[in-house]
Amino acid sequence: MSQDHQGTQLSRRDFLATTGGAIAGAAATGLVGQAEADSHAEGGKPEPGKGGTVRFATRSDAVGLDPHRNVMYYVSYPIALTTQGLLDLNQKLEPSTGIAEEWSASDDLMTYKFKLRKGVLFHNGREVDAGAVKWNFEHIQDPKASHSFTRSALKNLKEIQTPDKYTVVCKLKAPSAAFPANVVFYPCNLMAPDSLEQANEHPIGCGPFKFSKWERYEVTVLERFENYFETDDQGNQLPYIKTIEGRPKKVDQVRLTALRTGQVDLIDNMAYADAASFPERYKDQFQTWDVPALGTAFVTFNLEKGPFSYNHPDGKLLRQAAAYATDLEAIGTVVFYNRGEIATGYYPTTSPWHASPEGWKGKYDPDHARFLLKKAKAVGTKIDLMANDSWPYMQQTGELLQNMWSEVGFKVNYQIFDAAVLRQKRKAGEFHADSAAGSYRFDPDGWFSRQIISTSPLTKQQSRFRNEKADQLIAEAIKTGDKAKRLGIYREIEDIVNDELPVLYTHHLTLLEAGVTNLKGYKPSISGSPNIKGGGLRTAWMA
């Protein structure tokens, strides 16, 4: 069903106007949170287990607890802090040593050898050895036991060998430079092999925090894992924090109000409108962290059915008309309040995988869009545009697209659906354009081999893009070990995408995290994850 969001925006402004003074006053008089009152590290210095309690309000929560059956989204699911993969992630979300203290690849990228760190434990005391890794990978590969997204990360894994207790050898079906990125904790996190029966009620992982309690969209309680393997520069075991209380709050304003009134100590995001003024307005009361690479927003065109499709004689011309009619700067200003970057490809400039400096070759030119529609004798063409009801920026972008495209001569029917209906629409191809987005991928193959290559199930259910040259380049990139060469290949692929327009990249998504001033040592990854090597909530504490 279609929705009008103007009322929501006005009510939000009214709410801020009527409550802002009272809330700001409460903060200024020093509302002391539970974490601040109950837990002070001596001398304000971090000490393992004496880092206090952090109440963490997030946008989302897990659907279930079994780490192989459910995706543990690494940015805003509190439960993700219980997980760890064969490899870890650093602040830039590059695969890094973790449980595997070193790894190597064969020259043909068909074999990967991982040397495991000795003494790494699951939360139940069992050692994370080669046998445990092998069991996890084989369990993930079982279609009856795992989520399709998790399983897809290991689809190229042919055989797992364990020549000794601390060595894992992975034999692949095809060369892959991306395999290290597929064995980090999102999505391939490791759980204790002897804990399968309790995975749905009390998961046993090997991450920095261990599970204590979960009530979906109410509270997640995690306790410090006293035997976690990572240490700080002085050799002290991480993490410092004793307890994390996850407090998922889906509505942006509710989450922000909880921070400002002392109900929580850290929030993973706020609305773009609030993010534009909050850092300066509340700089003496709260601290903030910019997250520049959450993901990328884009418009997906249906290339199988309708006016934008291969079946329409002027399908590409009409996609170009829609692109010329799209004012990306206006979207950046109105929807994102000038936070983040206009997208030229899938990765922003802050990512080590930024590969496309040009973007859509055409500029915003509504007159040229009208010319193309007239040339194709397509003025008045009906367009079914849809968006997901879960994310305001997708809906707001859709509203702007409806107006922009209508102004040049399209007749746009814009509808907003929940996730279940949206999936059905995509699968059946019952749409012409979709205001969508994708999360940050640790390796470009996670995007191009899932949503651009023609053989991917997601491509077949979304854009239906078919391009032999792009397929060949994606296949070449995955078997290229040299990163600079891979980037060059991905730039060629992005040029094809920006010319053929199966998707029109619009904007790079950002977050603004905020927390109380006595939260020390916290710094999220470039996409917002609080669970990263040498950072995030592993190195944070309450002073």
Automatic annotation (TrEMBL):
Domain Solute-binding protein family: 95-450
Pfam families attached to this UniProt entry: SBP_bac_5
Cellular component annotations (GO), alphabetically ordered: ATP-binding cassette (ABC) transporter complex; outer membrane-bounded periplasmic space
Molecular-function GO term, any one: peptide transmembrane transporter activity
Coiled coil: none
Alphabetical UniProt keywords: Signal
Bias (Basic and acidic residues): 37-48
GO biological process: one example: peptide transport
Keyword 4Fe-4S annotated: no
SUPFAM superfamilies hit by this protein: Periplasmic binding protein-like II
Leader peptide range in chain numbering: none
NCBIfam families reported for this sequence: TAT_signal_seq
UniProt record similarity statement: Belongs to the bacterial solute-binding protein 5 family.
Protein name from the UniProt record: Solute-binding protein family 5 domain-containing protein
